[in-house]
Amino acid sequence: MFRRFYFYLNVRGKLHYSTATRSECIPDIVINGRHFERDEWSNVTPKVLSHIGRKLHSQQGHPLFLIKQRIIEFFYKRFAGSRGNPIFSVHENLDPVVTIKQNFDSLLIPKDHVSRNKSDCYYVNSNYLLRAHTTAHQAELIGMGLNNFLIAGDVYRRDEIDANHYPIFHQLDAVRLLGKHDVFKSLDDGAKMEVFDKMGARTAEKQERHTLEACKVMEDELKSTLVALARHLFGQDTRYRWVDAYFPFTHPSWELEVFHRDNWLELLGCGVMEQKILDDAGAHDRIGWAFGLGLERLAMCLYDIPDIRLFWSQDSGFLSQFADKTPHDAIKYMPVSVYPQCINDISFWLPEDGSFTSNDFFDLVREVGGDIVEQITLVDNFTHPKTQRTSHCYRIVYRHMEKTLTQQEVNTVHKQIEKEAAHKLNISIR
Question: Which of 24, 49, 111, 369 has its CA 20 to 30 A from that of 285?
């Protein structure tokens, strides 16, 4: 009889193994006690799974926690009830395993949209994936009757490897819904105005279901709120600009950029929520706005953190610089020391069946090399004129965050990457 191997991920992110007799050797994925059968869509790796449960955004004294709290405090102060109590609820412990409906369908993301590809997401199986954005929880919270809420959490995307990208990062989303009375309450003739237009047309300024007046009120509140947030974070004299954007779940949509250190930095994306999302969630009588931002990007800018891998470090030299700090303290990260890089190249012929994707290779390198892999860059893409076979050459930069690596140590890891890539990706090492 064959044995079926389960790997279980507990809340601390460690892998445990047990066995059960089966006629087939098909590993189940178990995340926080939930069992998921593998299928042809399963591409989540043990390395990625090991991060589930770390909840960096909830750890006091962590830079992501400080940034998150600073944003929450802003919303608590700006939006308060008649007795001064905050009207925004905060949700930061939602399960990162979501359904296809939650992550895509509930947000009106088209079936053929590139963001659904296996090369972009970490699928548990064909029905579940690790959320690619905290926006995946919007519809369920609206369906619970919530009108004003913030969502913070870890999100998972397959991406390139460099100092600014990591397969797990953290987002914060906000949603605000208003009924007719609240939309127009500040206007003298607000009682005569309508939120919805039964015979309307979609334009660049509004959705077909909304009146132009309602959409403009929502746009004004959204933009004034986010400009105030940007200045709360970066300073009152911060320059900003709005850029028209497209998102499947909002229209009209914008990105807010701030001028930071001689460059324009994309801070967040936002817009008026698509009314169909609200209708499907049972909020057909309300209109809403929403935005989302990345916590790592903010923290790297505000605290001078040079490498996204540092957020996962448990080294006291890093964490001690944020311990006992408040969200409003001015903190500038000081590198404990800078360890040298080791650079190795890897060249190989791609499989002729077209099955190779760069993100598959990046995941494999991360799985084998772990966090000593600082960066991967495609330095050569060559097609043989006679055979028409394609060759890639990637430059892999190795650097440990806490010690000096020897070239021998790096060569051992590099050889293992070559071996695993040849076996799992069907490439031919040159």
Answer: 111
